[in-house]
Amino acid sequence: MNIVYRILGGILLVAVVLAMIAAGWYYRPWSDYSPSRVADAFNPDNIVDVSLGMSSYFPYADIEATRPDPLPRALEPLQASYDFDGETRTLEQYLEASNSLGLVVMRDGIIVHERYLNGADADSRPTSWSVAKSFVASLIAIAMHEGHIDSLDQLAQEFAPQFEGSAFGETSLRHLLMMSTGIDFIEDYDDPDSDIGVLFRDPFVFGSDIDEALLDFERETEAGTELDYISSSTHILSAVLRSIYDLPLHEIVQQKIWTSLGMEGQAYWNQNVPGESGVALGYCCLNARPVDYARFGQWYLQDGVWEGERLLPEGWVDMATTANAPFQEADATYPLRGYGLHFWFPETDRGEFFAAGIYGQYIWVDPSRSIVIARLAADPQWGARTGETFAAFRAIAATVAGEE
After folding, report:
1. Is 288 helix (H, G, I), strand (E, B) or coil?
2. SS3 state at 267
């Protein structure tokens, strides 16, 4: 009997030790980032805190504002209303219902309205989620303008050899930008075990190599034949940029966009592990001041020219913000909107276009009125609110333009 007790005691001791090791790994009291902290980021109750403070949940690298050039301001009150779903609603009602964090409105290159809500202020750096994709696409355009890329029909593996022989590597830059790779990658935000859930979670929990994680996906349909929005496409483009410039993504952003445009504030980009060995999640997670998101939109309003210098190729803005194939037309694949090259456009023919991210991140550009709207939010109902958001933005633009 004593032998049995000793065996059971040994098993219990091993179980306790293993449990302590597992708890230590999960909570990592010696580290600023842990699996438990990652889990906290997915708690719906924390959505505002996460949206305003990604640096406290995930590793990151700073993007310095090396040549800040504050935008001119002529701030004025903004009271707008719009008709939606059979009733008239005010801008105040919309901002409250959509859990908005920041709203910046520009007219003719001047900030005319600036507002912060739900604990945010002018120094806050709300996360962009997929708005970051439009920044990566712009860097591809800059690389073309600088002569590093001869044609968008070149394959990704020509620049990023780590993907050679893989489906992603054998996809052209054009089809990556169009989100028409034909690759079987499941982007389901409601399923944490879908491909995008794993691609987002594993780098933070295990410090995994994001590039390597994309090597085994296979193509199921011919590239360039349908619109299939997958974040992995943008990460491949970010890897192309890293190879072209031989720099981490955050340094490329700093040199080619933040410094060139004179962004007002420091920003940061989340990466898989802390320090110089970290690799940015190329498809999301730029964190910046709302005024700097608005400046990015103004750059596009000005056709890629800033302070008299062309930074984007001629014709790029038109190509990026309109359909490049019938399946990208508004309502062809997604209701109320269509897709270009990492930019969206609404179903109307006013020439509006926008960058967008989950939970209600928008940079909305209305060239006909010379209006830019940057709106950041933490809105779990952002998808269902798409039509109302368009109505609210159009009411803002019309009001600021003096039409209402």
Report:
1. coil
2. strand
Q: Give the tokens for residue 72.
A: 């001119």
CA distance 102 to 376: 5
Q: Are 375 and 348 in contact (CB under 8 A)?
A: no
The span from the CA of 304 to the CA of 297, in Å, is 10
Residue 380 tokens read as: 């779990």
Report pLDDT for 252: 98
Residue 272, Cα to own-chain centre: how many angstroms?
16
Strand order in the sheet with 60-63: 60-63, 267-270, 286-287
CA distance 199 to 127: 18
Single-letter code of the amino acid located at 368? S
| C-beta separation of 47 from 359 below 8 A | yes
pLDDT tens for 303-339 read 999 999 999 999 999 999 999 999 999 999 999 999 9
Instruction: Tell me the CA distances in angstroms from 101 to 20, 98, 124, 293, one per residue in order.
Output: 40, 9, 9, 13
